[in-house]
Amino acid sequence: MSAYNDFVTTLNGILWHNSVLFIVLGTGVLFTFWSGFCQYRALTHGVNVVRGRYDSPDDPGAINHFQALSAALSATVGLGNIGGVALAIALGGPGAVFWMWIVGIFGMALKLTEVTLSMLYRNTDDPDNPHGGPMWVVSKGLAKHSKGLGRVGKTVGVIFCITLLISTITGGNMFQAWNVGELTQEYFGIPSVVTGIVLALLVGMVILGGIKRIGAVAGRLVPLMVTLYLLAGSYVLFINFSLIPEMLVLIIKSAFSPTEASGAFIGGTMAYAFLFGMKRALFSNEAGQGSSPIAHSAAKTNEPAREGIVAGLEPFIDTLVVCTFTALVILSTGVWNRAPEAALTSAPQATSVEQGGWSLESLAVPERLSGSWKEGDKVFVIVNAHYNPQSDNTLHRLNGRLVPGEPGNLVIEWSAFQSSERPVVNDMGLYVNYVGATLTAKAFDTVTPGLGKWLVTAAAWLFAISTMISWSYYGEQGVVFLAGQRAVVPYKIIFCILIIVATLGFIKTDVQLDNLTGIGTGVMLFANIPIMWIFGRQAMAAYKEYIQRLKDGRMGPGHAPPPLEDVYSGKDVAG
User: Which is nearest to 42 in space by CA: 321, 314, 334, 444?
Assistant: First the structure.
């Protein structure tokens, strides 16, 4: 397992090199200026389109604009907003939130561009079941020039689909199931694998109905879950209202200077705040990843740029609204740099093992200050060892797990620790390792005990289900491009099985979780960003032509806004 973790860490280092982050961010900046700040159009015209004023049952497609946006948002507004933000702050510090905002703003231009391209090149041979995405853009786009380039385009499309399936398996499936399983087990004692089985059954019932059922479920589920979560977040922020200005200052200050170690937080540099903020924001809102265009390509419209403008709303809702709520809840409640839950009676001594590693002696678990321990609880101590570039000091987390010792007692079994220097416990504090969504739940619990238990668990289930059903469709479209319609049913069965696999206990720490999801997002960016560079001019031309017609009054709403119920259900385009 150690060799696997080392490989995954190395691969992440390549995929998420600082130069890659600058390229992605620079691409967003480029399209922002090229489009004349399309963010404004997304927040104004895009809202009118989503309201149904431009919906038409005569246009090609399967679902209306609102359902297309909901289907895409159900993939982005998920556990990345609950667990991903917690990961970013736990690993990169408060400054990571600032870089999430930056990605959210420029991500709006990335989304508009990639979705407009997919609408220009989508396959509408079956108007009620269109296919779209970067694989169609590159294969059809290059084929327009020559047969030779068409073969190249097909090859690149295949590569993109492979990266799409990797991301589907990791971030769109296993990350979601693992987080819900851990959270449910933490609060209710239900084995994680039981959660996996229930999730697999629920997701399976939805995805077997195809994009129309996914759109119908997402159209009702997304508004419900976002409203529920934001109301609860507003309650916590109201309680801690006086701390919000201080937290905002901390976010901006930490984005440009190191954050010192405090409590459970071992410290963070500006570089790592940038890294983790970018990674988690891109994982959460999927800007530049090429996944959302697949859902938007199912929209009923004959105006490619119109759906692109709608897509620009995604990063705003996902990152600038929902992620910010989560971040302020975590920061204002202080769980990110919390005090230890117990004090060790003696410091565990380190003994060397093979390949330069260290092992700590097992200790009886000390009395917990609040609550009680149970078998399987994850804990950590902070140790001094070799220089840590993430924290700009010599501090590290050393993880452990509570296992049965003498009858009726629990002991701490420590994980192996790789270092060129013998680790020495920094203080006698023993911290509970709240990973991902459980850290956010802990933040809610500090305000009202039990709030996190019920609210975040419910939100996590809703977010995870909505994300998995949308990502299953993304993966399905990749499978259709690679192997045709005949491979769809086997793919859906495998997708559901992997939900269960993710809850079997292979993933144990937040670093492993970050590495796993980082691979999925990273490989898709490598495949999709070059496609946007090659064809971006066409998207910008289509967008500017559309906006000019809008300004000149040559185009307007086709009718008054339909009833909201018709928009949610898709009845306004049912014909």
Answer: 314
